[in-house]
């Protein structure tokens, strides 16, 4: 695939990589100094990841815990800043440890510059991580 040309195209490409469980390729979409924030993160979960390496460490074991199957209900909204999008979606699949369903709702504000993610504010549903098998970050909840 050629390099995505817009923030929305890059985001869609990133979702495909997550479904393919290709975390290294997803991390490669990030700028070296990219910032990932989780404003609703519960206690014990990271609220801010600074830099590509921190994002890689955070998601390294994600597929071992959550088997994503689809991102239904995807809506990408353009903003007045062409490099920034607002995304609404669900992630569905199963929790590997318990084989129970996984269904997470998200709203994200994503900024892309020079073909790389520079900012990703992820407003995911913190109630979903109360389920056994969701702690892919190694947090100390």
List the helices and strands and how they pair.
Blueprint (H helix, E strand, L loop, with lengths): L6 H13 L3 H5 L2 E8 L10 E3 L1 H8 L2 H4 E5 L4 E4 L5 E12 L5 E13 L2 E7 L19
Parallel strand pairs: 1-7
Antiparallel strand pairs: 1-2, 3-5, 4-5, 5-6, 6-7
What does this protein look like?
This protein is an alpha+beta fold. The chain is 21% helix and 37% strand. It has 4 helices and 7 strands, in the order H-H-E-E-H-H-E-E-E-E-E. Strands 1, 2, 3, 4, 5, 6 and 7 form a 7-stranded mixed sheet that branches. A hairpin with a 5-residue loop joins strand 4 and strand 5. The protein is globular. The N and C termini lie far apart (40 Å). The model has no long low-confidence stretch (mean pLDDT 89).
Shape: globular
- The H-and-E topology, N to C, reads as HHEEHHEEEEE
Tally of extended strands? 7
SSE-based structural type: alpha+beta
Kindly report how far apart the N and C termini lie: 40 Å
Radius of gyration (CA) equals 14 Å
Question: Low-confidence parts lasting 5 or more residues at pLDDT below 50?
Answer: none
Q: What is the helix fraction of residues, given as a range?
A: 10-25%
Strand residue percentage? 35-45%
| Helical segment count | 4
The major pleated sheet works out as: 7 strands, mixed
- Arithmetic mean of pLDDT: 89
Labels describing this entry:
141 residues; alpha+beta; 7 strands
């Amino acid at each position: 695939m050629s390099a995505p040309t817009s923030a929305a195209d890059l985001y869609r490409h990133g979702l495909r990589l997550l479904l393919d469980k290709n975390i290294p390729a997803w991390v490669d979409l990030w700028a070296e100094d990219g910032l990932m924030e989780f404003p609703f993160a519960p206690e014990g979960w990271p609220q801010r990841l600074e830099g590509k390496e921190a994002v890689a460490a955070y998601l390294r074991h994600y597929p071992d815990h959550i088997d994503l199957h689809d991102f239904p209900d995807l809506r990408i909204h353009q903003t007045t800043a062409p490099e920034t999008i607002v995304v609404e979606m669900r992630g569905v699949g199963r929790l590997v440890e318990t084989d129970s369903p996984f269904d997470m709702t998200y709203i994200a504000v994503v900024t892309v510059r020079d073909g790389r993610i520079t900012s990703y504010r992820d407003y995911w549903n913190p109630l979903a991580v109360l389920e056994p098998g969701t702690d892919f970050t190694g947090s100390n909840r």
